[in-house]
Design a protein that fits this description.
Distance between the termini: 65 Å
GO molecular function, one term: RNA binding
Radius of gyration: 31 Å
Largest sheet: 3 strands, mixed
Domain APO: 169-254, 340-425
Protein name: APO domain-containing protein
Shape: globular
InterPro entries: APO_dom
Strand content: 5-15%
Number of strands: 17
Structural class: alpha+beta
Organism: Chenopodium quinoa
Length: 447
């Protein structure tokens, strides 16, 4: 009998022959010339279930062949995404003799710069949305208040927990350890580490060893005059998270911020209308208690240790405050500009970085001490400060031989976990809770 040939989209590598699928056998043959009329072929009765396909005819509407060929791969990928990782390595330590990578690819930055330059040459004003035009984002004002309240609770809770949970810091490097005694892992990179064969010199730690203090200049008008090297002492240094919340809509007595009602206008990189320059309000004797609750300085003296019955509750509240700060800061940084130096830990909250010549890192002589500003990430504004996870704080100290079997966690999470808080699941893979610690003799036999 005559059976009209069915034409499907088939890869060019298939010319003649057969291709098997889950439902039927597809016969593939090459058509001579161009399809000028419907082509047929006589098939025996026993081959009525066969279909004739032509590799030259391409019809985008029928994708049954490709769907059948890749159906198994799609199901495998969908199952693979649902599987949670068992162990996760920490981000690699960036070399100090090299600039940090850009959060946005350099090609994308260049593309946006070319687009802005083209609009500027045509005299077209750049379209700016809040808060890029100096106006607050109403939806983020409650988030800023929530972050500031959580930041205050985080400092208060950590100050109480550190009276009970011992924390040690190395006097020669930035290593921090949360346990009854310091570990014996030989990874010190201090000035005299060669004499100690990499062992740390442990001293009693403070809250600044758990939360790395990150400060920024407070600006009355972030879109006003930039801070110069000669005028840097005219501005106060406050915690960077507090400055971000102030610019996002929080009002703190003694630290005013300009609230625009008319947007600024820009052509290219030039501001054509900023509503005029406004001098900072007449400096008054600042109330030292305005930022006292938001500063880690002297926090251990302000808050007493909690009662033993409330230890787990304080630890859980501190953990929740830490998660709230991290989530809120990430949400605020999606809208408000935060700059970080590509060579040193300096951070600036605002659309442009300051001009203070304070950078002393790699090749600062070539830059005359100026910072290499680029977009900041949350780990630069709110550093996690990873420490070794200790399963038994009162047990034997950690050793170098078992280093690869130990996990890590942010210092705040480790302190709260040892005080009785429940660790969020997203930290469990990096803490390596599913790995059984072998003996020192067995560790050498592990592949």
């Amino acid at each position: 009998m005559n059976v009209a040939a069915l034409c499907y989209k088939v890869p060019h590598s298939l010319t003649t022959g057969a291709m098997a699928s889950s439902s039927r056998l597809l016969m593939v043959y090459q058509c001579p010339g161009v399809h000028q009329r419907p082509h047929t072929e006589k098939l025996p009765k026993q081959s009525l279930s066969l279909s004739i396909i032509c590799w030259k005819q391409r019809q985008k509407s029928d994708r049954s062949v490709n769907e059948e060929r890749f159906s198994s791969k799609k199901s495998y990928r969908s199952v693979k995404k649902e599987v949670l990782p068992q162990n996760v390595d920490l981000p690699p330590v960036l070399p100090k003799k090299k600039k940090k990578p850009y959060p946005i690819p350099i090609t994308e930055i260049q593309r946006m710069a070319r687009a802005d330059k083209k609009l500027a040459q045509m005299g077209i004003e750049k379209a700016l949305e809040p808060p890029k035009n100096g106006i607050l984002v109403p939806e983020l004002i409650p988030v800023a208040h929530e972050v500031l309240n959580a930041w205050e609770g985080l400092i208060r809770g950590l100050a109480q927990l550190l009276h009970v949970i011992p924390v040690y810091a190395c006097s020669e490097c930035s290593e921090v350890h949360v346990a009854e005694t310091g570990h014996q892992i030989r990874n010190c990179r201090g000035s005299s580490s060669n004499k100690r064969q990499g062992l740390h010199l442990w001293v009693k730690g403070s809250i600044n060893d758990v939360i790395i203090p990150t400060e920024s200049y407070h600006l009355y008008d972030p879109f006003g005059r930039r801070i110069k090297h000669e005028t840097r002492f005219d501005y106060d240094r406050i915690p960077a998270i507090v400055e971000l919340c102030i610019q996002a809509g929080v009002d703190i007595p003694g630290y005013p911020s300009r609230r625009r009602t008319k947007p600024i206008r820009m052509i290219g990189k030039k501001i054509i209308d900023r509503g005029g320059y406004l001098e900072d309000p007449t400096p008054k004797p600042r109330d030292s208690s305005a930022l006292l609750s938001y500063d880690t300085h002297g926090a251990l003296l302000r808050f007493p240790p909690p009662p033993p019955s409330d230890l787990s509750r304080v630890a859980q509240e501190t953990m929740n405050a830490y998660e709230t700060v991290a989530k809120g800061v990430r949400k605020l940084m999606t809208k408000y500009s935060v700059k970080a130096c590509g060579y040193c830990p300096e951070v600036h909250v605002g659309p442009w970085g300051h001009n203070a010549k304070l950078c002393g890192e790699f090749k600062h002589q070539w830059r005359d001490g100026k910072h290499g500003w680029q977009d900041a990430i949350i780990d630069e504004l709110f550093p996690p400060n990873y420490v070794w996870h200790v399963r038994d704080p009162g047990g034997p100290p950690m050793r170098t031989e078992l280093k690869r079997f130990y996990g890590k966690a942010p210092a705040v999470v480790e302190v709260c976990q040892q005080a009785g808080a429940v660790v969020p699941k997203r930290y469990e893979p990096m803490m390596r809770l599913d790995i059984v610690l072998p003996d020192s003799e067995e560790a050498r036999l592990v592949a």
